Amino acid sequence: MFTALKKGRVAALGVIAVSAAVALAGCSSSSSPLDAGSSSTGTAASGTIVVGSQSYYSNEIIAEIYSQALEANGLTVTRKFNIGQRDAYLPALESGEVTLFPEYSGNLLQYYDKTTTATSADDVFAGLAKAVPSQLEVLQQSQAADQDSYNVTKAFSDANAVKSIADLAKVSGVTLGGNAELATRPYGPPGLQSTYGVTVGFTPIDDSAGPLTLKALLDNTIQVANIYSADPSIGANNLVTLSDPKHLFLASNVIPLINKSAATPKVTDVINKVDAALTTADLVSMNGESTTDQKSSADIAKEWLAKVKLF
Question: What angle do CA 62, 65, 69 make, to 5 degrees?
């Protein structure tokens, strides 16, 4: 899991807006990956909550909401945003160099338990609580979901009568596009073959469902794109999200992952209140503010917290 446009924008303008937003998201980060706020031992200074984020603008927005909510309650926060993928930031969480991270339940569970059979949000959450390392814990999962999804253009859907992932089995010459690691993910090409009997080519596009992925789909360089479900580019470009009747994708709700050293009652109470208030519609709206309106993560988070009036 880790790195889009208001409804009604034309595709070409959508690509431009996303491109600008990706650049903005990188500039809006408060610090470089794993470069500040740590002691010489690599752990966070006592009493400081070190909030991390993926290299994905939507994840950074959630991390900024966590940070501002904690600060509003008198806690000291250091931001370490744009760290990258799980192979980079999970070891930092386990060591205590980073102490709090917004995660996505389904993909995180598959990272720790590649043989899981859980699919529903509740089953995934229960499995995840058991699967994380002993020094970590998951807090309350949000109703907000942002998960991998397979999308095609409306023209492709109409021309080939494709509405679900299963329908791809009757279309030859289909190429899937997504981050390079998708090639070996359980829901990538191997999972498409084993779960649905669908054979696809694969083109790696390492922009986390960003403007390059969108352009390749709109240009028909690829026919299927892995785009996160809360990405406003889906609606803005009239894409068709393929249904997944066999649950190739696990439910993936926003979930805070925290190092137990930082999981004080005050911290957990603040973050659980945030996650209880966050919705999928909020994610789509805030993602649009980032990509189309080019607002900073800090401003988006501040406005959301003011709207929900949690503290």
Answer: 145
Q: What is the pLDDT of residues 212-237, one digit of tens each?
A: 999 999 999 999 999 999 999 999 99
CATH of the domain at 292: 3.40.190.10
Structural element, H or E, at residue 215: helix 211-218
With DSSP H G I counted as helix, E B as strand and the rest as coil, what are the percentages for the chain, rounded to 5? 45, 15, 40
List CB contacts of 221: < 8 A, sequence separation 6 or more: 175, 177, 203, 215
> Would you tell me the crossing angle of helices 11-28 and 280-291 to the nearest 10 degrees?
90
Binned at pLDDT 50, 70 and 90, residue 41 comes out as very low
Q: How far apart are CA 198 and CA 248, in angstroms?
A: 12
Do both 47 and 196 map to the same domain?
Answer: no
Bridge pairing between strands 76-80 and 175-178: unpaired
Contacts of 249 (CB under 8 A, 6+ apart): 106, 147, 148, 149, 187
Q: What is the pLDDT of residues 241-293, one digit of tens each?
A: 999 999 999 999 999 999 999 999 999 999 999 999 999 999 999 999 999 99
Q: What total number of domains does the chain contain?
A: 2
Are 153 and 257 within one domain? no
Q: Please report, as a single letter, which amino acid is at residue 100.
A: L
- Whether residue 160 contacts residue 154, with contact meaning beta carbons closer than 8 Å, is answered with no
- Answer yes or no: do 141 and 103 share one domain: yes
Same domain, 174 and 297: no
As separate numbers, helices (DSSP H) first and strands (DSSP E) second, the chain gives 12, 10
Over residues 44-67, the pLDDT tens digits come to 556 899 999 998 899 999 999 999
Q: Are residues 71 and 156 in the same domain?
A: no
**What pLDDT is recorded for position 34?**
55
Range of the domain at 23: 11-145+251-308
- CATH assignment of the domain containing 186: 3.40.190.120
